[in-house]
Amino acid sequence: MPMETRPTPRSRIAAAVAAALAFTAGYILVLYLFFAWLWPRLPDWAVMIAFVLLAIFVIGSPIVALARIGNALGKRPPGRRDN
User: pLDDT tens-digit profile of 4-22?
Assistant: First the structure.
């Protein structure tokens, strides 16, 4: 009976890093193409809407991330320290 081979932690980490790098590269490419190719072709009213939406996302995403981290850590009674 052959033994079942499980991926080693190192190979799983390497796969996760490779996937993260690919995702980041794709994200940067999409942003570059958007600002280099599409942004100059947008009408003025669409540029204003896109600018406002980008500002909301840039300002709001860290706030949402901090709120999720706070919810994941759970509610702690006042005065309690976890070091």
Answer: 677 678 888 899 999 999 9
Q: How far is CA 6 from the centre of its chain?
A: 29
Q: What is the pTM of this model?
A: 0.54
Q: What is the C-alpha to C-alpha distance for residues 22 and 80, in angstroms, rounded to an integer?
A: 41
Enumerate the domain spans of the chain.
Answer: 1-41, 42-75
Rounded CA-CA distance 71/76 in Å is: 10
CA distance 68 to 64: 6
CA 21 from chain centre, in angstroms, equals: 12
